[in-house]
Amino acid sequence: MPLRESDAVPSALKVTLLQHTPTPDRTVAAAGRLCYAPVSAAGLAEEMTADDVARMVRILVRSGHHSALEHSSFTFAVDGISRACSHQLVRHRLASYNQQSQRYVRFGSGDDFVIPPKIEQVPEAREVFVRAMGQARDAYDRLVEIGLAQGYGKETVQEDARFVLPNAAETKIVVTMNARELRHFFRVRCCRRAQWEINRLAWAMRHLALGIAPVLFEGTGPGCITDECPEGKMTCGQEYSGDEIAAMDLTSVAVIGGFSPSHPG
pTM for this one? Predict the structure, then answer.
């Protein structure tokens, strides 16, 4: 079978912040302050200065009073990740997800496959990968044709044909996490030992969240930047530097296609 570039077009990651709690830092600060105040949270939210908010959020994070962080949430649209990556993402259980269905949405000629960078860099490996993706696409298309010819409905045909699609198949997903879970997500997935694709996704999400709630997400990232590496004997031994984290955030801007958050903080 001849090699066709159309068989495996590299999928581009795009992360968009769809929505978030309007004033996440202030909401968290008011919720936390309420525990020690005789007035309403609404009154506290109005009365607290920016310095009060920042100080309260830092106290909550430092003291481990993280339940207050759950009152701020962030919703992301993620396009161009593989099914392998989405399988890892949904393991973070304290979140809400909606993913593009392979049963109701046909995997068409315009859909892509995610090519791992190390495979992309080696011509021979890339050729093997692209050929395999082409064979999977051909098998999928043929199974759909056969099923439709047998008189089965589109949904029935597609839910069976999808079994031949690989983990590399591109998918789209919407994910909502509260600030507490996001901080945990960044801690484990921004780590060098995380799989490269979800690592890249985590840094992009962190960049967007940090732009909206700089105090709430300050100091976030892999555990090694604020404490000893939590990986123990599995540590990579390569702690992130401040300059490297800044460079990662610049990479994230490119990853999200230049999207600039314009929502109020």
Answer: 0.86
